[in-house]
Amino acid sequence: MPVWLYFVRRGQTAAASEGRVIALRRAYHDESFGFRKPRQFTMLDYTPAELSNRAANAPLLRYADALRTHGHRAASIDPLDLLRRERVPALNPSRYGLSDPSGTYDIRGILWTGQEPEPNNHWALCDITEFLNTVYVGRIAYEYMDLPSKTERLWFSHLLESQSSTSALHCSAQRKHRIHRSIACSEVFDAFLQAKFPNLKRYGLEGGESMLPALDALIGEAARAGVTHIVLAMPHRGRLNLLTGLLGYDPVSLFHKIKGGAEWNVEGGQFSGDVLSHLAASPTLNYDGKQIKVTLLPNPSHLEAVNPVALGKARAKQYTLLKVLEKGSEGVMCVQIHGDASFTGQGIVMETLGLSNLPHYTSGGSVHIVVNIGYTTPASSARSSLYCSDVAKMINCPVLHVNGDYPEDVVRAVEIAFKYRNYFRKDIVVDLLVYRRWGHNELDEPSFTQPLMYQKIRARRSVPALYEDRLVNEGVLQKNTATSVRASYKEALTDALAASASYSPPPIKLERQWSATKIDGNNIKMVWPGSPEAQIFDTGVDAEILKEVGGASVSVPDGFDIHPRLQRHVRNRLAALEKGEGIDWATAEAMAFGSLMLGGCDVRIAGQDVGRGTFSHRHAMLVDQKTEGVVVPLNHALSKAAGKLELANSSLSEEAVLAFEYGASWERPDFLPIWEAQFGDFFNGAQVIIDTFISSAETKWAKQSGIVLLLPHGLDGAGPEHSSSRIERMLQLTNDPYSPRPNVNVNMHVVYPTTPAQYFHLLRRQVKRNYRKPLVVAAPKGLLRLAAASSRLSDMLPGTKFRPVIPDNASTDTAERVILMSGKLYYDLVKERAARNLDKRVAIIRIEELAPFPFSEVTNVLRPYMGDGTKRIEWVWVQEEPRNQGAWGHVKDRLGVVLRALGGNGDVEYIGRREDAVPAPGIGDTYREQQKAVMDRAFSGL
User: For this UniProt entry, which residues form the secretion signal (predicted)?
Assistant: First the structure.
């Protein structure tokens, strides 16, 4: 039985060690989804004789542990030998009183050689030193002795030391030929592009070719172990080599793209495509008869931003497999490739690592490969740590450093990494030390800032050439065979380049789970609001179901002791349901969730404190005050529902958490993913994800998403921060047209609802319609408990739906001023209008959906106020945000278009705060004065 799978003491069978099994439970999924599974590890026990020997030979034990701990500092891991290897005193046996090289020592319980202890249990010190240096001071360096788990430390010691004494290190001739082919073809590919497209920024892999056999070995090991899906995230360096060399991307399509063509064709859509270094693929590969699907995600140029997206997609795919195949994390693995400078410098790396072992977020461990290729900034200016991988130590992650000049060692390193990940379900890092033959791109001159490094690089032969010479010298590879490999691949590339002249890109194909947006067989004709195929759904629900769901949302098991202050929360909800009025936001949300769950839809809401809600309003999860047991009432009381509610109370992260949820939305169109910011302005920490994924992924990559962003918004005297969700930024990111145009594919929806019923319909609409769009909600704060902002049950019954525009009840005949506005200010305006007795003279119209702008609905609501054309109406836009913020910049031209179409001059007056550098003042008196001024101006002159 392989020692890397089970710790069985030498000379014993697996059954004999069963009494020493310990179960380490890793909560890599949420209990409510049935994902929690125990991981069992067989623990090595020392026999009494071994324990006695360890005590008797304590100096030797200290020496062995010193090599395990500090050997990496002297290892030959730098291909350029620019990292000066230290003289490490800890590696000298004399430091431990071991001075006689020929002296013999009993190694029982100290070294793990994989051999029987008798009669070979006494070794000479020189042999022990040679053995430990072979294992720990070679071309692979190991950092694992700082792991807090003794089990994991022993796992590494057993694996590394026992393999070093067996044939496990042997690399077959077949494997060597495969390695050679991958790196030789990579070199041919880069040379071909350089010759044919000399001005192309291709971010080639020259110097880092070992990345390809590393990934090939990793995917092969995963496939043979039963992994069926790999979700792969990587930056631009070497991406084209990977796509064409391993993932089967058609070079004809690649050359077509290089020459300016599109990578795919989508009928009727508005799509920009993306740059060459962001291309993606999702092939199914075959390794020894085992099929494995590898999904390389499209990525933006923001380094590392795609990593949490991949993590979220991997976890969502695990959930899908669990439901379909009863196979969760065992079937899916996330692989993240990084650059050395970005792994250290980009904060999203640390945020993503922080998610790796958390309930609701972990996907059972990722394999990280840091392609340590160097940067135009020296390492001394790029990081404060010894290694670029040191940031991974924050999660007690083992690190393997390997010299990229030796592809066979690289392969061994990634195979060890996979075994660790697959056994412990934890992250592991492979630091692949290579170099870049060119600068940041092929048009850059790196010797401006790295003259000595590039003197060395330009004087040395390439990695494929060096490896080829080794194989020829070993007699494994014939020179003419090597030449043939290169020539045949170059010929294939030449043929592909010629074929690209007449190439026509195929229509994009959607994966099966996205068939709901499939219009024409496997060819997608994208669906968007206004297109003929877009379906309008009735999002209302029967009263009996709403009451059942509402009651279930506050139901707890018998004997469950809820907090005394929540008793009122339960009573109020049940009373509102019984009366059919006074439905607050939290109740409407719960009814939306539960009704979707009854229809088979899973709902996941993630963010900080989402279970209780930032404003202590949601209480979708309850905690027993005596036992601290947790119950999610909707899952408990709606056990018949096919869907589940997952409440992912997240770490204090915005960027990685939002990216994670977004990645899940790519995998599963059949569920409702929500990210709630504690306050609206918290999205600032996730702006990269919003800019490069949420607002633009469909346009760049034809990737639809139903992600919902809840951003609590509203000026309430709380100061500059926590007041604004920056509606203006979200609207600026939309491609919403300035005038009514049919079949415009608006990239995302931005709404500012003012009633719980509107929110209810928005959530249900997000799932029910037959296309997916990101939804940004300027969510309530003060309205959560405002009685005037409650809804009736009848507002959510069949026949009702979300209203993009809510008209006023004021008479169109008597109105002299029409206030157009969005959001919570409505309730202040209504109160002020009543106090001034202007109900008949002022109409207040709420525009609830800001993008896409509801031209037809606004036109229909405003038309009655125009009368016969002789009546003079004052049109004003009122908002509480400063003039340079809020929705004004977005609506003013669009309102003008509507009014001119109705026969007016299109003028709309702005009423609100003047331009400001902050969303709101931090001085309470100033805030109140400004708010009063807005109210006065809204009704002045009447």
Answer: none
